[in-house]
Amino acid sequence: MDTKRHFALLVSVVLAITTIVAAPAPAEEPEYKGKVERLIEEAVENNPELKAYEEKIRAYEERPPQAESLDDPRLKLSIVNVPLDSFRLNQEPMTQKQISLMQKLPFPGKLSLKGAMAEQELEIVKKEYLEKKNEIIKRVKVVYNNLSFIDKAIEITENNRELLEEFVKIAETKYAVGKGLQQDVLKSQVELSRMIDRLISLRQKRQTLVARLNTLLNRPTQMPFEDVEEISQTGFNLTFEGLQKIAVESRPVLLGLGHLIERYRFAHEFAKKDFYPDFDVGIGYGQRDDSAAVERTDFVSAFVTVNIPLWYKTKESRKVAEEEANIRKATEQYNAMKNNLLFQIKDILTDIEEYRQQIELFRTGIIPQSTMSLESAIAGYKVNKVDFVTLVNNQITLYNYEIDYYRLITDHENKLAELEAAVGRRLF
Fold first, then answer.
1. Are residues 157 and 299 in the same domain?
2. 98 φ, ψ to 5°?
3. I need a labelling partner for 289 at 20 to 30 A (CA). Which of 103, 142, 211, 416 fits?
């Protein structure tokens, strides 16, 4: 193959590997977004962690009816006043066979407060489920974004490997006819070997990402994952103020702390009602056996028992103080979480804006300029105005910029996924 043909192939390969990068990227890629949504649906339906939380919710749904129910009534069977000399049941008029039924009745309002506390605990568990769900969605997005990046990096690396192979052939051809240097041949072979090494590393990383994604989807870890769509940049125009409002209204962990505050408030009200007594009410029936000479009447009895909160200074009062402290603690936890959340959102927005500007710079400046520099180096090398080392360095520089460009897009999309998890709601 002559040198002119090599140069023609070089130019065509350079143009092929930079056309997509140099062109303006669409704001949204329907196929890519659709694939991600289908994976999210599968993960939400099948992920074992989420299924565990679903069962936890079902368990907590059984608690409010239990909390609002009365204690079981108690049935008492007894024999009283049996004479020890004969153990006869009809000897003494006081001897009775008794049956009693008793029921504990909490002070009015206590059961409803216990039920309200159980309802708040159920809401907390539901918010834990939503928090875990948002985390799973974020992880699916991030892993799929990274997988798409790896596939694109493999594609770019394969194209650059092909380009380096052409460099090797040019260097060998020139060296064979006495117009090139052996060090040019060695330089191109070394760079080609490094490119092959990068391909090996990228393919290993892909296997790890596929296993991780399969784990999130509850698929066999070794299951192949093909047809990964090319990642694209998502348009973004939300403000910090708008995201702050969404986060306060939607972030599950924040809402869960709100329910925790309410739960402690109900507990505080319950503790105050402990100053009032509970009641035990009952009714009993006593049966007496007739003697040989006397017919004996049976008895019926009723009773009410109350507890006396005599030690209220060391018990009930301390319980009220404890629940007041719990309310203050949960309130401060809510405020701290809210402050950290708003900082997190602001920090994410800063990173998103930085990535957006860098992507635009790479798309419209760095990569087109590097492409032109490589094409100029190829032309200069053809007429012996550029040395081979410069040519190879220009190609490696362009390769690194291409990888960096798609890494920036991936980081941008991962930050958007992190932002959605931070505010607690799907945004895009």
1. no
2. -110, 150
3. 103
